[in-house]
Write a structure and sequence with these properties.
Layout lengths: L11 H4 L2 H4 L3 H9 L9 E2 H11 L5 H13 L4 E5 L5 E4 L2 H13 L18
Antiparallel strand pairs: 1-3, 2-3
Helix pairs in contact: 3-5, 4-5
């Protein structure tokens, strides 16, 4: 019996991939979008949903709230708190961030660039 690598097995890593593999396509896109935020960054729910709409992943704000609720229920992202302006915030935990970033790279959804050492010819 041939051995399969963990990258081919959807249940590799103790089933961590399973919640992702059973998501509908629009939920996968919304989840992968989160890979552009740094680990532990508290994202405004309104900003997140607006980004999903701008990318064409969802048609309207209500659909974004449904997607967000489902991703939270699946423990792929966390509802964090309500800020001083009454806006809801969410974030990725360490494991979720790593999982999402690896899937994003595999699907060429978002490229994660690491900061280079030294001076850049084109400073930001």
């Amino acid at each position: 019996m041939p051995e399969s690598s963990n990258s081919e097995d959807p249940n590799a890593m103790g089933g961590k991939n399973l919640p992702y593999t059973v998501l509908h396509e629009h939920l996968k896109s919304c989840l992968l979008y989160l890979s552009m935020f740094r680990n532990g960054y508290e994202i405004s729910v309104d900003r997140l949903i607006s980004g999903w709409i701008a990318e064409g992943y969802i048609p309207e704000h209500a659909a974004g709230e449904e997607c967000l609720s489902e991703l939270i229920e699946r423990n792929l992202i966390e509802a964090v708190k309500i800020d001083s302006d009454g806006k809801a915030l969410c974030c990725l935990n360490d494991k979720g961030r790593e999982l999402i970033a690896s899937f994003s790279a595999e699907e060429n959804s978002v490229t994660i660039l690491k900061k280079r050492q030294g001076k850049s010819k084109y400073p930001l």
